[in-house]
Write a structure and sequence with these properties.
This protein is mostly beta strands and 189 residues long. The protein has one helix spanning 2-19; strands at 41-51, 60-64, 80-88, 97-107, 114-123, 132-140, 146-154, 161-171, 178-188. A hairpin with an 8-residue loop joins strand 5 and strand 6 (132-140).
Length: 189
Amino acid sequence: MANLLSLFTLSLLTTMSLTIPAAGHFWKSVKNKPFKLGTAKLSRFQFYWHDIQSGSNPTTINIIKPPPRNTSSTTGFGIVNMIDDPLTDRPDNGSRILGRAQGFYGLVSQEEYVLLMSMTFVFTTGRYSGSTLTVLGRNPVFQKVREMPVIGGTGLFRFARGYVHATTHTFNMQTRDAIVRYNVYVLHY
């Protein structure tokens, strides 16, 4: 019994010494001054998200289909699509591209059409070119206005937080192509 206890204690100490880093080497508290955060400002953006599933150059593709035995769900529960959707200043297909929405969405409800959206808005023009905002949230697509959180960003949007309002501009039931207006409200430094 004593040998078993000694072996257990030795194993525990070895595991702890390998998994717990020495103080100060793994983490360190920092002060706000190195970041020069300044005062937070609220910015508002509006753009159009073009989710195109039809044609020879779709901007969204299906990457996961639900299992064949999932015939009881009429909502497409389990479908996941990868996106690289253009963001434009107007809803017209030929309008100026401001950036891309890159990520994925999946149908997550067995009872209603609800997407889980995980996407990053990558801005490619203007003052915010090279900066990003990340959205992660629930999108009940048949509600008039859907709200999802902005959980972070990069570049000029470091430490960003906020929310988006998504409103469907057009949706084609045959092609499943959609144009959605996004109003983005974001606090950043």
